[in-house]
């Protein structure tokens, strides 16, 4: 079993499409290089922001294979696992390992909302099927499943379960997790609008959204926070906040793709049922992005 260094910035990578809806690997390559150049620490593919819900299983593995070639071992490459059945989840984990993934981010079972016992059994079955390190995604706001401390107590019996993407939006949970599990469970803040607060409370790192378009600014905030230069971090963070708020909306994919496309790091295209922004909403989101670009801090 490999151990990942679960510290630093792990972008939840966008999946760029051509206008006809096919995968745009050229643009993906541009974004990967921008992330690495900024100093990020790992990449997560085919997550919610990567439009997992509209990608085929084959496409997820295509993204993984392409990313592994492009990254060439410079940072860990993780694949997101989001399946409806335990059997499919196990098959997916085994295939990701076979293709060379460095780790998995695993969501609770989709569609069927399991009770605590069922959710624990699902995660443990996946963990027992692979040697890959696992990041458990705890996001009760968007996925209706809350993974409690008692559930983590059971999950951590599996050595491959090593980290949590903490998206409960309850900052006290970081301290509860740390008090209960010490360093056995690494904590990655999973909500853009509280990512600095998460780091200051002792999170090991962050899984970010707006980092897709703004890797250097995200890295600067992380770096300053780690060095204890909090006032400087806060200054950049305040500039960043209107953009970060794009991450906590049901249309985060459209919004963040639009932002990243304005800085040449994505295309704006999404797959249906997501549609292009129109009218007042389009104007409002464009204005938020354009205002931020006009006052972008000198790093």
UniProtKB/TrEMBL annotation:
Domain of life: Bacteria
UniProt cross-references to CDD domains, sorted A to Z: DHDPS-like (cd00408)
Coiled coil stretches, renumbered: none
Cited InterPro entries: Aldolase_TIM (IPR013785), DapA-like (IPR002220)
GO-annotated molecular function: N-acetylneuraminate lyase activity
Active-site residue list: 137 (proton donor/acceptor), 165 (schiff-base intermediate with substrate)
Any GO BP annotation: N-acetylneuraminate catabolic process
A cellular component annotation (GO) from this entry: cytosol
Keywords tagged on the record: Lyase
Binding site residues for pyruvate: 207
Family of this protein: Belongs to the DapA family.
Protein name: 4-hydroxy-tetrahydrodipicolinate synthase
């Amino acid at each position: 079993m490999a151990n990942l260094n679960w510290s630093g910035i792990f972008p939840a990578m966008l999946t760029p499409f051509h206008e006809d809806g096919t995968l745009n690997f050229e643009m993906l390559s541009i974004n990967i290089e921008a992330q690495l150049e900024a100093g990020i620490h790992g990449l997560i593919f085919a997550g919610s922001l990567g439009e997992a819900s509209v990608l085929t299983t084959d496409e997820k593995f295509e993204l993984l294979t392409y990313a592994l070639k492009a990254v060439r071992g410079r940072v860990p490459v993780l694949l997101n696992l989001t399946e409806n059945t335990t059997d499919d989840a196990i098959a997916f984990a085994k295939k990701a390992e076979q293709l060379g993934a460095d780790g998995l981010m695993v969501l609770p079972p989709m569609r069927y909302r399991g009770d605590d016992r069922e959710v624990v059994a699902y995660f443990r079955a996946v963990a027992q099927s692979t040697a890959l390190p696992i990041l458990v995604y705890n996001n009760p706001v968007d996925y209706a499943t809350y993974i409690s401390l008692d559930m983590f107590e059971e999950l951590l019996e599996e050595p491959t379960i090593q980290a949590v993407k903490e998206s409960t939006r309850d900052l006290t949970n970081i301290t509860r997790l740390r008090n209960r599990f010490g360093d056995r469970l690494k904590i990655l803040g999973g909500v853009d609008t509280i990512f600095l607060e998460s780091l200051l409370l002792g999170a090991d790192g962050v899984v970010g959204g707006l980092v897709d378009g703004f890797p250097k600014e995200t890295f600067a905030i992380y770096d300053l926070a780690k060095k204890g230069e909090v006032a400087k971090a806060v200054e950049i963070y305040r500039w960043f906040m209107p953009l970060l708020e794009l991450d906590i909306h049901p249309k985060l994919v459209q919004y963040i793709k639009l932002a990243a496309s304005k800085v040449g790091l994505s295309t704006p295209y999404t797959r249906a049922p997501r549609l292009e922004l129109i009218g007042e909403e389009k104007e409002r989101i464009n204005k938020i992005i354009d205002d931020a670009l006009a006052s972008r801090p000198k790093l």
